[in-house]
Task: inverse folding
């Protein structure tokens, strides 16, 4: 079932598409392997010093993004759907260091920021080139929508850099 079909009124996706010169299984693995995620799962000028992945439906991933000012912001997600190597659907929310969900205000982020969102990532391959399409469901009125979009652009760029390095 398509998670986007269950969307609440007023919700619209950020949609990004990126092509990678790598086989689909390789690109898919970059989204599921914690060591690889540590290298690219953060916006520009940030790092990911910690990441764990329990890659199964209902499994959790837990990560720490270290901002350029040294502040740590922890996040987590629950895998809702996995079709290897075609599709991953997961929730995304803030967490504490122990992996417990916390509201955005825990990190000084405005209370208009959603507490949990859903991300759908699909992977298609043609002639050794993989196209990744990302749908991040957010309320249309979310004021930091452009910043969220830019964060994803940065992360997808960093993933491209990883593939360019081999």
Result:
């Amino acid at each position: 079932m398509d998670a986007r079909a269950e969307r609440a009124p007023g919700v619209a996706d950020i949609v990004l598409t990126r092509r990678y010169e790598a086989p689909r299984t390789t690109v898919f693995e970059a989204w599921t392997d914690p060591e690889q995620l540590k290298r690219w799962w953060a916006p520009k000028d940030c790092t990911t010093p910690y990441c764990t992945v329990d890659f199964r439906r209902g499994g959790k991933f837990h990560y720490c993004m270290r901002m350029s000012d040294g502040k740590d912001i922890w996040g987590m997600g629950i895998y809702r759907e996995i079709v290897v190597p075609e599709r991953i659907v997961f929730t995304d929310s803030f967490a504490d260091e122990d992996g417990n969900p916390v509201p955005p205000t825990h990190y000084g982020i405005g209370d208009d920021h959603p507490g949990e969102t859903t991300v759908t990532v699909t992977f298609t391959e043609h002639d050794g080139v993989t196209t990744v399409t990302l749908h991040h469901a957010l309320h249309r009125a979310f004021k930091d929508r452009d910043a969220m979009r830019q964060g994803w652009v940065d992360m997808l760029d960093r993933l491209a850099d990883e593939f360019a390095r081999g």
